[in-house]
Amino acid sequence: MKNFSGKALFLDRSDINTDEIIPAKYLTEITKEALKPYLLEDIVLKGFNPSTDIENMSVVITRDNFGCGSSREHAPWAFEVNGINIVIASGFARIFRQNMFNCGMMAVELEKDVIDRIFSLFAGKTTFVETNMEKMTFTFSTDGMADGTNDSSDGLREIIPFTVSEYDLALVKAGGWVNYADQNY
Amino acid sequence: MGKTIAEKIFDAHHVDSPSGDVDVISLDAVFCHEITTPIAITDLMARGKDRVFDTSKIKAVIDHVTPAKDSKTAMQGKILRDWAVRHGIKDFFDIGRNGVCHAIFPEKGFVRPGFTIIMGDSHTCTHGAFGAFAAGVGTTDLEVGILKGVCAFKKPESIKVEISGTLDSGVYAKDVILSLIGKIGVNGATNKVLEFHGSVVESMTMDQRMTLCNMAVEAGATSGICAPDMVTVEYLWPFIKDEYASKDTHTSKDENSLKKVALEAFNKFTPDADAKYSSTIQMSVSNLQPQVTFGYKPDQVKPVAEMEGTPINQVYIGSCTNGRLEDLEIASSILKGKKIAASVRGIVSPATPEIYSKALDKGIIKIFMDAGFCVTNPTCGACLGMSNGVLADGEVCAATTNRNFNGRMGKGSMVHLMSPATAAASAIKGVITNSELYSA
Ligand code: SF4
User: Fold this and answer.
1) CA B436 from chain center: how many Å?
2) Distance from residue B100's CA to the centre of ligand 1 (Å)
3) pTM more than 0.90
4) Closest C-alpha residue for ligand 1 atom 2
5) Where are the alpha helices (DSSP H) in B122-254?
6) How many domains does chain B contain in total?
7) C-beta of B413 in contact with ligand 1 (< 6 A)
8) Which domain holds residue A48?
9) B-chain residues within 8 Å CB-CB of A44?
10) pLDDT tens digit sequence for B31-68
11) Which of B266, B283, B309 is the last residue of a domain?
């Protein structure tokens, strides 16, 4: 399984589309690695600078209908090669969501009010998300450690449960749909 | 309980249900183009699984950037071409015979009612016009489709869209779908199938139904579907008539009765009267005006009248949405004997060689050229900002395409989506304008 914990990147907008995530002009690349510098290059989001704000981030938190538009799997790949294997949102476009799980990555949907709460508590602060795949929980914290071991008392801490279907979980565990289909069909 | 079109198709193709809400279905066709398929091919090779499930069910085309514009796009074409040759994929369309995927595959008769189709392209929903379940997928789904002939989908829920009324002259399928997307929003149909019904859809040609279904994904839909009817049979007749003639062993060989037999077979994929829909949308188009988008999302839609006078730098007529013969005919009827504004660059891209050739025969190409348009070979070209008319920062394009995302046709540019009639009229004026064909 891939890593689903680490520093959180907040993208405070709905309908972020695949052309914003990775513009079509980079679709001529035939390796995933080549996409690395261009992630979110064309995003329209005030105060966000893709060339400085993506480094060291591991978890994306965003709003509704994330990944709408083209079917390009270059979008999940561009995240993957930047060390981001999970996007948490209040909603996803179907193809993007499926592409994530097909790659053994995660696209986790949370209720809109939960996402609102996460944004109001953590956006703008250095936030870590610890994903526990057994308990199916995210631990959001501002107290420093990705593994949640720091118990500094002034830090914010929230434990948020999530659900992933049995099938999606099987894809994540198998490392993606090619492996899964190969074992099963 | 009654079933929707998508549910009937899923029932007929069921392979597995790996969890409650997911079905694995068998595929009748896997379509491929040179942008998303080469990575799937390379990955299959790396895994030692360079195989295809059925060479006759795989159809491939080089369409997005053709002729190749640089070494990288040349390599994408080469990987697809070599693969097609290696596996003996006979329906492979290379330069000289190639056109925009969602125009050329239906034109060749590859789409049938009840079919399941995937492609590594979001506008695969276009083929639902034939009563097929056709959905865009990513490269991994495509890879498994190529290898195993299966794909996993959530059990399809459908939204019934009832389109009634009469379209005014100068108002088209493009205006209908733009207006619908404007109403329900860019995720109004996410994870759902849009099933189109009503007298307006019934009286549409296949070209128009394809325009309608093409943009279903812009509302988030998995697919757009029209029920198959006699219009579908007539379109497909050249491809299916032998099949039905050979079935007809005892009775008369009268073509009309054979067509009725075909229709009956296709009727297997019309919805039941008591089918269950997640919702129903009633839409009357009687007073619908020509529509145009104004922002960076396809649901930001207004009547053209409210955008009249907006300056444009380029007009692009083409794409899988509106690059078919009817579209070129409509645009040329407006352009005939006129010149486009000196401030505007006009580009027309017939979607397939057959469309191009028929447009030549009908004098349509000459009208475009006389008006000052550049006529390109069939390709996606400028639609996705990869070649043949990429815009500069700050420029504006009036386009018959389907997507107006920020940067879509070139970084920093703006795209206004509209019908071919509106695009042609706007080319002449040099600003967005209603066509003279429109009269309320
Ligand atoms: S014409 Fe445009 S929308 Fe259609 S397949 Fe080509 S790039 Fe995609």
Assistant:
1) 26
2) 7
3) yes
4) B383
5) 139-148, 173-184, 199-202, 206-214, 230-247
6) 3
7) no
8) 6-184
9) 296, 406
10) 999 999 999 999 999 999 999 999 999 999 999 999 99
11) B266
